[in-house]
Amino acid sequence: LAELNLKQGSVLAAQGKLSRAREYLETAVKLDGSNSDAWLTLAQVEYQSEDYAEALKSLETYQSKGGEMNGGEYSLLASIQLFTGNYKDAQKSCDEAIKKEGGDEGEIFFLRCKADYFLKDYAACGQDAQKALDAGYDYNECMTMKAAACEGVKDYAGVLAVLMQMIDDGVEDSEVYQNALAAANEAKDYAAQEKILLRLLEYETDLDT
Q: What CA–CA distance (Å, rounded) separates 131 from 206?
C-alpha cells in the first residue's frame, strides 16, 4: 500500500499537482517509514511547494534511512539550505555535489555562487558564477551574479564590463541597460555612458516599432 501511495504521489507531482501529491506521499511514509524513496520524493514536493523547513526534515530523514546522496540529492539539499539561510552548509553541500555523479554541474556551481554572495565572499562568487557559465548554466543569471560580485566590492568598472558584455552579446533588457548606466556613472566612464544611452535609444525605438 505504501508503494501505491508513492507511485500515485509521484504521478501527481509530475503533473504539478503538488498539494494532492503531498497527501499521498505523507501517507506513504506513515505506512512505511523506512522507505527512503518516499522520503526523497516527499522532500522534492515540499521543496517545490516552498515548504523548505519540512523539505529539509524529509531529506534528513531520507539520509537517516540509508538513502544515497548523489549529486542531485546534494543539489537539492544545497537549494533548501539557501532558502533556509544556512549558507555555509549550502557551500559544503555544493562541494559534496561536485564530487558525486548525477548532478548538474552548472546548477551546482550557480548554487554555490549564491551561497558565496550571501556570505559576502565576492571573489568566490565571481569565480563560481564563471564556472557555472562554463558548465552551460543560464547565461543571464550567471552574468548577473558576476556583476553582483563586482558590485559587492564596489568594483564599478568590473560591473560595467560584465553588463557591457551582456549588451554586446545581444541581451536586450531595459534593466541591464539601466544598471550599466548606473555602473558607468559610478565608474565615471562617460564614454561608456554615451554608448549605453545610444544603445538604449535604439532598443526603445525597436520596441516602439
A: 34
